[in-house]
Write a structure and sequence with these properties.
With 136 residues, the chain is an alpha+beta fold. It is globular. 30% of the residues are buried.
Length: 136
Amino acid sequence: MSERTLVLIKPDAVRRGLVGEILGRFERKGLTLAAMVLRTMDGELADRHYDEHVDKSFYPPLKQFMTGGPLVAVVLCGDDAVAVVRALTGSTDGRKAAAGTVRGDLSLSNRENLVHASDSPESAERELKIWFPDLA
C-alpha cells in the first residue's frame, strides 16, 4: 500500500545547493515525488508546523533558522514512505548520523540538519494538510 509523507529540505540544504542530491536519494530508493514547492516559511507557518515545540527552549532559534531562507516542501509516496524516509535521513544530529544517510553524509550540525521528515503516518497527515492543503 502506498503511503505519503512530507519532507522539508531546509534552508541550509537549499543554500548549499543540495536539493537535487537529497531528492535523488529518495528517488533512487523508489519513492515517487507527488508535489513540490519552493517557499519561505513565515512565523505563523513555523508555529503551526512545530506546534508541539513552540513552548520549548530550543524553539526560538529553530524558528529563526527555518524562517531564514527558502526551503523545498516535498510530498513523497511509496510503500512505508514514512519509515523509508526516516531511515534515509538519519539521526537528527548530523554529527552522529550513520554514514550513507542524508544527514550522516551531508549535515554539519544538529540544528542545521538539512531535512525534516514526518515521524509517523499521523504526523505526515497533519503536516501534509498544513503544507499542501489542496491535496486530496
